Amino acid sequence: MKKLILGLLVIGGLWSCTDGESEKYTGKSVEYQLYQSSDFDYVGSAQIQELIGGNLEITLQLEGARSNSDVTYTSHLHFGNYTEADAPIAFMLNPVKASDLRSVTILEQLTDGTRLNFEEIKGFDGHIKVHLAPDGPDYNTILVAGNVGLSSNLEFKIEEMAVCGKDF
Predict the structure, then answer these.
(1) What is the model's pLDDT at position 168?
(2) pTM of the predicted structure, to 2 decimals
(3) Which 3 state secondary structure label does DSSP give 123?
(4) Which of 65, 88, 114, 134 could form a disulfide with 74 if both were Cys (CB 3.0 to 4.6 A apart)?
């Protein structure tokens, strides 16, 4: 009898273990490609997932050389597609860490005052750029870039990429 009770407790304990990570998402997700945009050999993706409650989480994951240092790469969500010169920043994303080439950001109110839900992000006319540095001459070096939403299906042409503005 003791073995039966112990067995049931073990099974019940295993059954009650759930993946807390999956419980924070609704299951709605879209992924956009980030393309190599300079001599630095990086590519990546931007995954946008809807959180329970309606907020959006943007995960940038790059592929390329990693570093053991504390270096980070500045990343932005911009209005307009990547060919538009001085496209205003829509939202400052968390920097990509050179150690794991990853950034996770909860998207909040954009600089124009709007908040996007999951359906709206798919129709958003914007792009993401990841910069080598937050300022100075290396700010103009874009590691990866890619359109999100409305223009995401356009072919990426590095020669058409514009340097983005820092205006909010």
Answers:
(1) 43
(2) 0.85
(3) helix
(4) 134
